[in-house]
Write a structure and sequence with these properties.
The chain is built from six helices and two strands, in the order αααββααα. The longest helix is centred in the C-terminal third of the chain and has 24 residues. Helix 2 packs across helix 3. Helices cover about 60% and strands about 10% of the residues. The protein is elongated. Strands 1-2 form a two-stranded antiparallel sheet. The chain has two domains: about 55 residues, Arc Repressor Mutant, subunit A, CATH 1.10.10; about 45 residues.
């Protein structure tokens, strides 16, 4: 995401060129597809290539990631402290005060 925010838009090859290590083309493309499915980026077709660009502001993406992180750890703590608690049961008792502060 940082690469797309910095550049504004980029192809898979351009993203790969800025990543450390030597990621495979298919790996980078798959990660971009996941981000697109989550609504964080979108693509435009330019000839045979896709150019990816952010679909949401940096602030919106950070808020979403933080909310997911807090909910994940809250659910994990609840499950560990009360073993009979299932995911379905835990959803009945959301951390409303935390959720409200992230909205």
């Amino acid at each position: 995401m940082d690469i797309l925010y910095r550049r504004g838009r980029a192809t898979v090859g351009e993203v790969m060129a800025e990543l450390s290590g030597d990621p495979a083309y298919s790996t980078v493309r798959a990660q971009l597809r996941v981000l697109e499915e989550k609504g964080q980026i979108r693509h435009e077709e330019q000839g045979l290539r896709y150019t990816y660009l952010p679909a949401a502001s940096r602030h919106t993406v950070r808020q979403s990631a933080l909310k997911h992180l807090i909910e994940t750890f809250s659910m994990d703590r609840l499950r560990k402290s009360w073993p009979p608690c299932s995911a379905r049961t835990a959803r009945k008792f959301p951390m409303t005060s935390w959720n409200a502060s992230l909205a």
